[in-house]
Design goal:
Elements: E1 3-7, E2 18-26, E3 29-32, H1 37-42, H2 47-53, E4 63-67, E5 76-84, H3 94-107, E6 113-117, H4 123-136, E7 156-160, H5 167-191, H6 199-213, E8 216-220, H7 222-228, H8 231-237, E9 245-251, E10 259-270, H9 290-305, E11 310-320, E12 332-334, E13 340-342, H10 350-362, E14 368-373, H11 377-383, E15 388-392, H12 395-408, E16 412-414, E17 432-433, H13 441-450, E18 458-463, E19 469-470, E20 481-482, H14 487-498
Parallel strand pairs: 1-7, 2-5, 2-6, 6-7, 10-11, 10-14, 13-17, 14-18, 15-16
Antiparallel strand pairs: 2-3, 4-5, 8-9, 9-11, 12-13, 15-18, 19-20
């Protein structure tokens, strides 16, 4: 795990293996960003010229290494691009700093200690750099042979200019570390192979974390689910040798006045069931539990931060497999709510497990429920693979979540719930079908979920199908594989709820 320290040392005097500085574009010129004045001085004021000679342009995502001159304690300087110089009086945005720090941490894999001399004006800047560096340093190596030549993630991040004796800076750094570490917990779960992460082992991981952080954990196994009538979760999990689970993990604060319920889709592997996915669509389906991972990580983060709000996580865990006992297209499931659902497509399984969990969560009458799921390919078609969709039964709440996502640096977009699409899920056999019209399929899924939310409860649905798992080359602080999408949004939402702003 990468360590984080706030240092009072200067860039020229701190002993480290690398110094990270920022460079930016000012018209056609390259300029050294604030925070690196001592480093530029060691280059006799020619750091920008040296970097330009090496091809640096200051563009975001760019990283250029140069040997350090005499006068610096570190042997290497790494310049990361910050994009264009801000207009007069403005500072570099938090997400720019976060991505630059993430880029640096990735490039410095195998390095023991790096000092970050990026622009810091306020505590929020320090938080962004810390968060980006800790997320960028992430690597999933649990199943790789640990040979002597294996490169380890960056060992230590030292933030320069972050005022370690200032309460605001110290609190910002501690928050950044907690959030980043919990995002990395979610990433670990998403990346874990499905032969080792299945409902029972996922539940065991929650139980272990519950003991560590003082959380109350309740696990409903297949017997309890059968007794309770959770037909949606059981219907999805019936085809697997690994039976399903419904896990409740709760953080409570003695001064809390509000309760936020988070519901996560936890399909630990999705083959599509009897409606088998076509070739080429199965390889990454271990990530179909990313919503549950995000919910779990967010509850732990709330506990670590001591937020004055009750946060309850509901993880609907199942493995969707085809077998002689699997649910068939045409079957009717008796849901926990009492509704019946005709299953027209067993690959539309996420909404079935979420429906039972939403009903159960509603029984506790929380102030709001937010569900998170890698729910539909339709949302990826609509918004791409870096943006998640937000639907809600309250326009103001949807707008608030969108604002929060933008604030914390997660790409999201508000989506509607058109009432006219509901009719497409009418079934001649049951109360509702699990499929409707194909066009607008992500919205249809949201309308299905809305049917299972308790009356009068504010609810939002985050479809993270696009950004939950990144198959391309790493960028910024985003690795290849599980990303931890929506964790930052959920944590900030809990903070806003605790502050009485929602």
């Amino acid at each position: 795990m990468t360590a984080l320290t706030l240092s009072t040392a200067g860039a020229a005097t701190l002993r480290a293996d690398a110094l990270v500085v920022g460079v930016a574009k000012s018209g056609k010129a390259l300029v050294v960003a604030p925070g690196a004045e001592a480093v530029d001085k060691a280059f006799d004021g020619r750091l920008a010229a040296v970097l330009e000679t090496l091809g640096a342009s200051g563009a975001e995502g760019e990283a250029t290494k140069v040997p350090a001159p005499a006068g610096l304690k570190a042997p290497l300087v790494l310049a990361v691009g910050l994009g264009s110089v801000p207009e007069d009086g403005e500072s570099y945005g938090a997400e720019v700093l976060r991505r630059a720090a993430g880029t640096a941490a990735r490039v410095l894999t195998g390095t023991k200690k790096a000092a970050f001399a990026l622009p810091i004006d306020v505590a929020e800047d320090a938080a962004a750099i810390a968060e980006g560096a800790l997320l960028g340093a992430y690597a999933y190596t649990a199943y790789q042979e640990a040979g002597k030549d294996a490169k380890k993630p960056l060992g230590e991040v030292a933030l320069l200019g972050a005022k370690p004796r200032d309460k605001a800076f110290k609190a910002a750094a501690e928050r950044a570390q907690a959030v980043a570490e919990e995002m990395n917990r979610a990433r670990d779960l998403i990346n874990m192979p499905p032969n080792d992460l299945y409902p029972a082992t996922f539940a065991a991981a929650v139980q272990a974390a519950g003991k560590e952080h003082g959380l109350k954990v309740q696990i409903l196994d297949e017997k309890a689910l059968t007794k309770g009538g959770f037909g949606g979760i059981l219907g999805v999990g019936n085809g697997s040798v690994n039976p399903p689970r419904l896990v409740r993990v709760a953080y409570t604060h003695p001064k809390a006045e509000k309760t936020l319920a988070l519901v996560g889709k936890g399909i630990t592997y999705d083959s599509g069931g009897i409606s088998l996915k076509p070739a080429g669509h199965n390889e990454t389906m271990k990530c179909d539990m990313a919503g549950a991972a995000a919910v779990f990580a967010s509850v732990v983060a709330a506990a670590r931060l001591g937020l004055e709000v009750n946060v309850t996580g509901w993880l609907a865990l199942a493995e969707n497999m085809p077998s002689g006992s699997a649910t068939r297209p045409g079957d009717v499931l008796n849901m926990y709510s009492g509704k019946t659902v005709e299953v027209l497509n067993t690959d539309a399984e996420g909404r079935l497990v979420l429906a039972d969990a939403l009903t159960k969560a509603s029984e506790e009458h929380p102030d709001a429920i937010v569900d998170v799921a890698t729910l539909t390919g339709a949302m990826v078609l609509a918004l791409g693979d870096r943006t998640f969709g937000i639907m809600a039964n309250d326009d103001d709440y949807r707008a608030a979540i969108h604002e929060i996502a933008e604030e914390v640096g997660e790409q999201a977009w508000p989506m509607p719930l058109p009432a006219d699409l509901r009719k497409s899920m009418d079934s001649p056999t049951a109360d509702i079908a699990n499929m409707g019209v194909r066009m607008g399929g992500g919205l249809v899924a949201g309308l299905f979920l809305q049917e299972f939310v308790g009356e009068g409860i504010t609810w939002a649905h985050l479809d993270i199908a696009g950004p939950a798992f990144h198959e391309g080359a790493p960028y910024g602080y985003t690795p290849k594989g599980g990303t931890g999408s929506s964790v930052r949004t959920l944590v900030k939402l809990a903070e806003r709820t605790a502050a009485g702003e929602l």
